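Aim 2, interim progress. The first record below pairs a target sequence with its structure tokens.
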Amino acid sequence: MKKIFILFVLLVASKLNAQDIRYYKEWSIEFNVGVTKPFRTMTPGYQTSDPTLYHIDLGTRYTIAPGFGLKADVGYDSFKNKPDTPEFSSKYIRFDIQGVVDLGYAFIIYDEPDPIGIYFHSGFGVSQLTSDVKTYNDKMINVIYGLTGTLKINKNIDLSGDISGLMHIKQGLTFDGRPNKSGTYGHFTGNMLTSTIGIIYTLRK
């Protein structure tokens, strides 16, 4: 048993050699733009376009180990009414801390970074909704999850595409800015989706 444990340690050490550690202990900056769609907690009769412009987010990520990292990001969304529906205008901003897993590395599809990658990210944070109707800011707790695909351009730059979902708790206003009368204030509601394209710049020499 002791020999098996020593062999396992040696195999892990050979995988996490000095070159890998230098490569993965890195910071990156992410910028994304795209569309958004709230699909729960809307006042009956109020609708947004399918999808709605626009969503913007900016984040930073630190890859603490091969295949795994942590990131912090800020997102902004604008909601407006669909033509021929009641008018409204709302603004949404969030801040989240997330874990990021390289699925290709996790499932041993590749050992070294591949030109094409797919990542799962999930975490939680806080959100705030303001509208043209209510004068107060609705503060919520959110849970975020999503998938990101990447295409490497060079050693520093990757193009990305992402689809993310968000759930909210303690949402006092609907996304159109009216009081939330659904009776679900203490539950996860207020679901929305975002779809983006963007760029990732890795601080790598």
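The second target in this work package is listed in the same format:
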Amino acid sequence: MHTLYDYQNDGVDSIIEKFDCRCLLSDEMGLGKTIQAIHVLLKLQCNRAIIICPASLKVTWQRELLKAGVSCVVLDGVTSHFVEPTDAIIINYEILDAWLGYLVWYAGQNQDTILIIDEAQALANQYAIRTKAIKKLCKLSHPQYRLGLTGTPFYNRRLELYPILNIIRPDLFKRQDDVLSLTPKKLRDMIMVRRRVNDVFPNRQQ
């Protein structure tokens, strides 16, 4: 089991208690977003998790989940087939569309499914195949919990935030216009946990 820093425990608590696990975790790189997400999964006692990430991070997710005692399977290839369900499914963006039917079935086996979207800035284009696939997954399976991870909060490109915010909180962000008035403070108040390395570790040498 991972031992968390105080700020990571605070992050886990904010994700669950303030945002009901429907938010963005946007800590700067190096502050342990993956570990915090896994602890959210454990604290909520979810036994169905879909983790979507770049292909290069699938092994990292697998290693950290197993270290935390979470059974998982990594999906590969563009031809879907039945895979025995485990606590977590790890899949990369490029093959989402091919496995959509299986993922909808998997999520439907439990009403407390959590969807974790790593490097969520990959969904900045609402017309991309990957974005449409995740929106379709949410529409068909209705995962109760939705957590996006990104170290790039797009403060200066708010329209690029719309697709991921619409996936995580479609009730708050129904149209593109809903993001135009967002400020960093509004984002943190409504949907985002964000800490900087210098704030968390003020004495760390650069």
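The two ends are 29 Å apart (CA to CA). This observation will shape the mutagenesis plan for the next reporting period.
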